[in-house]
Amino acid sequence: MEIRRINNKLFWMLLAAAVAAATNYVEAQTTDCFYVFGDSLSDDGNNNLLPTLAKYNYPPYGVDFPSGATGRATNGRTVPDYLSQFIGLPFIPPFANTTGSDVLKGVDYASGAAGILFETGKQMGDDISMDAQITNHGVTIATVIPKLGGVEATKNYLKKCLYYVNIGSNDYLNNYFLPQYYPSSHIYNLTQFADVLISNYSRQLRALHAAGARKFALVSLGSIGCVPAVIIAANVSNGCVQDINTAASIFNDKLRVLVDQLNSDFSADSSFIIVNSTAIFSLNPNFLGFKIQNASCCKTVASTGLCVANGTPCEDRNEYVFWDGFHTTEAVNEIFAESAYNASNPDFTYPNNIARLLSSSPSNTNE
Ligand SMILES: *[C@@H]1O[C@H](CO)[C@@H](O)[C@H](O)[C@H]1NC(C)=O
Ligand SMILES: *[C@@H]1O[C@H](CO)[C@@H](O)[C@H](O)[C@H]1NC(C)=O
Ligand SMILES: *[C@@H]1O[C@H](CO)[C@@H](O)[C@H](O)[C@H]1NC(C)=O
Ligand SMILES: *[C@@H]1O[C@H](CO)[C@@H](O)[C@H](O)[C@H]1NC(C)=O
Ligand SMILES: *[C@@H]1O[C@H](CO)[C@@H](O)[C@H](O)[C@H]1NC(C)=O
Ligand SMILES: *[C@@H]1O[C@H](CO)[C@@H](O)[C@H](O)[C@H]1NC(C)=O
Ligand SMILES: *[C@@H]1O[C@H](CO)[C@@H](O)[C@H](O)[C@H]1NC(C)=O
What we know:
- The chain is an alpha/beta fold.
- The chain has twelve helices and eight strands.
- It has one domain: 3-Layer(aba) Sandwich (Rossmann fold).
- It has a six-stranded mixed beta sheet with strand order 2-1-3-4-5-8. Strands 6-7 form a two-stranded parallel ribbon.
- The protein starts with a helix and ends in an 8-residue tail after the last helix.
- The protein binds 2-acetamido-2-deoxy-beta-D-glucopyranose (7 copies).
- The site of one 2-acetamido-2-deoxy-beta-D-glucopyranose (NAG) has 3 residues, from loops.
- Pfam families: Lipase_GDSL.
């Protein structure tokens, strides 16, 4: 009797565990494909062969990455790298080199120094602007249409893919706030400039939608006035450059309005979410553990904020928020990606997190 009761209990415990495992499995396997757009925070090799100063394909970049310096602007994995792992996909190849990779699983089009506007970042050399990244995605689509058996089959495939876009920081740091190179701050005030960016971004996202994209995760701008290179350039002794953070928050407020608009315009078939960088950095308690919040781990070149080639980086990389003058460490990227993917705090993403974005059905993704 007693044994039987225990067995019963064990049975229910095992059943509960099996259900939990099955649920987790479904949650983790929610898409077959992942397309990435953006700047150096997401680049994984697209700038390696471009004539530009915005390159990071030399040591100590990649010191903690399995294959070393690949053209990722950090010591290890980027946020998209972590998201790929959570989704159950391999690392997504850069558009610049998809040799040996299955582009049906995804392509990364992101390019360091790039922005929403074509001219952004060009004082450093070439970059692949958002419009050019969308053109490159069209090239990928053209190659998969015959593999999938036609345009309709391809659209059916793409509607389930995750489209991740993190762009806009350089339109401020490598355009608006460099008046010696760019006229934008003479032409527009911050409200007007954010309107120019958002209207171009809206056009770009609608172009991706027209090409078949249906599930969008858009990353809002972080506190770009607090990165070490900006603090050093502005000669701020403690704290952040407030004007630049204000600019980012004006953009972010308008991004939220854009997302509401897109979700309403495409309510029948699409879903757009915001990954709220400000909320994640200010509210995730895991960030409190980082000892050094305002200095870079590697020694940087003053003019670019990038690591000095072959320099020895700090040893305690998990204690630093910043790897170089602009980019976060792998440790930060992991926490950020988890917060975006399936953290429970509803402030981190709006209106859904990435796991829910992916598990919703493509024909009616608004919940
Ligand atoms: C998603 O959330 C669950 C429950 O909080 C957690 O066990 C799991 O590790 C998370 N998955 C990822 C990829 O973070
Ligand atoms: C392109 O990618 C393949 C597979 O990852 C790699 O073996 C090769 O070295 C890369 N080529 C260049 C020029 O980076
Ligand atoms: C920018 O100019 C417009 C029109 O003059 C004005 O309404 C707006 O408040 C200004 N924005 C900022 C941030 O100064
Ligand atoms: C995009 O930005 C440019 C300024 O670079 C502006 O002239 C143009 O009107 C914007 N395009 C859209 C569709 O808003
Ligand atoms: C930076 O600020 C300090 C005082 O806050 C001042 O002494 C120094 O001259 C400034 N340096 C530059 C390059 O402006
Ligand atoms: C960095 O933060 C430390 C501790 O909060 C502070 O003492 C230091 O002045 C800051 N440095 C800069 C350059 O902001
Ligand atoms: C991001 O989160 C902050 C803090 O919770 C909030 O004030 C802001 O409105 C949010 N921004 C967006 C674009 O959702």
